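Bit of a strange request maybe. I'm writing a small parser for structure token strings and I need a real example to test against, not something I typed by hand. Could someone generate the tokens for this chain?
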Amino acid sequence: MPADLDTILATPAAAPARTPAQLAELVGKQEREIVNLRRQVAWFQRQIFGQKTEKRGLEPDGVQGVLGIGFDAVPGTPSPGPKVTVAGHERKSKPALDGADESTLFFDEKRVPVEVIAVPNPEMELLAPDEYEVIGEKVTHRLAQRPGSYVVLKYVRPLIKRRDTQVLSCPPAPVGVIDGSRADVSFVVGLLIDKFDYHLPFYRQHRRLVDAGIKVSRPWLTQLGQAAVALLEPIYDAQLDSIRTSRVKAMDEVPIKAGRSGPGKMKTTYFWPIYGERDEICFTHSPGRSGQHVRDMLGLSPPDGAVLLSDGYAVYASYAKQVGLTHAQCWAHARREVFEAKDIEPAHAEHALAHIVALYAAEEHIGQHDLQGAAKLAWRQAHAKPVAVRFFKWVDQYIEAQGFLPSSPFTKALNYILERRDGLCVYLDDADVPIDTNHLERALRVIPLGRKNWMFSWTEVGAKHIGIVQSLLVTCRLHDVNPYYYLVDVLQRVDQHPAALVEQLTPRMWKTMFVSNPLRSDMCERQPRQ
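Reply from user aminoacidic:
Good idea to test on real output. This should exercise your parser:
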């Protein structure tokens, strides 16, 4: 029996055996396949030659848009004023910087060591001291780097014997953060920062150590990392507890290869980053992608009025329905669905994207004017909500006009949006809910960036350790805390700090309590400053 239309056309004798309905079904199948192939080709062309960003700027000068209104006619957006001719003027050219004196330093003198190099003046060598006078000096700065800037701290402890009692006395060696280890806290922190913040795997760091003349084994570096993460885990747990108490949370999932599933094969596991309303994030790890992990991490008793912001993955909606919280959906994911169908149906896709541009224009105004609370909600109600109402009305009309026609990529994108209408509108009535999960997407970039360097985690325990360290490092960046100084302090402080107050060591709390007087490494205290 013929399998498709091509076979039927190639064998006319078999055609009478097909009914008109069967032929129509085969034709429709071929058309859908052609549309799908066109979409794939358009996607590859866009990746190589075209625009990859989904952002679209508003048209200038009130250009008529596909909404039937000018893009600048978003309610509440002021119209541009008349054009004014400005008189021309001249600008002074900037002096060349090469070899010139610098009036403004490009570095922090309190943090960067400076070595002074005196440059002799050849004229002075030809003159006697009484034939010239030094009336000043000019200074030029050059940025330099030492290969493998490692330092060995040599602790010299005097051993004495009392003459009256003949008793020997020697002070104990300074206590390190890891018992019995040769590594100073500064080295341990540098190891973590290089791997997780700058994505430099341990084997590359080991090569750099060898090149610097330091003979240590690669397993030793791994053991140091594991011991340091064990000290940081209580702080991570406290931060996760803080996020759980947030009323508004955002959640996503990102894959990572961790653990062996068989000879030569790695298992696909998942990080589930959770972003709290206090600008804290935790990268929780799970061996799978089921909804059970969402329940385990967020719990079954959310705070009053809790909102979970996510993409369209079904487990989030299922969790929200189970525990009775509000499920908000991400407009960036909705926009992406439409954007990817733009090459197949450009006119209709542009029409839909123009509405979404108007929604983001309202959010841009909120950000520029730092609107908060009631003012932010009032602006959304007045300028974004009418746009959303018009958009969903147009989507309903478009879908109704399609009837039972075969679905296209653009129709599928609109159905994706319609199925999530309630979730997409949550942010319009709650000032604390973002329009999308882009803040979470930016924070979780460290996982794909790291994955391109260390590629996989040999064990699932290693993946969990990655999540612990990245949770603290990314949160430090969110709160403008230097992660090096933070880790040097908390690794020394965590064993002495009361367990009931471990939340004080999270980056958010640490910034308010300890940043002005942090614990430092012995190397930092002895480092010369000029």
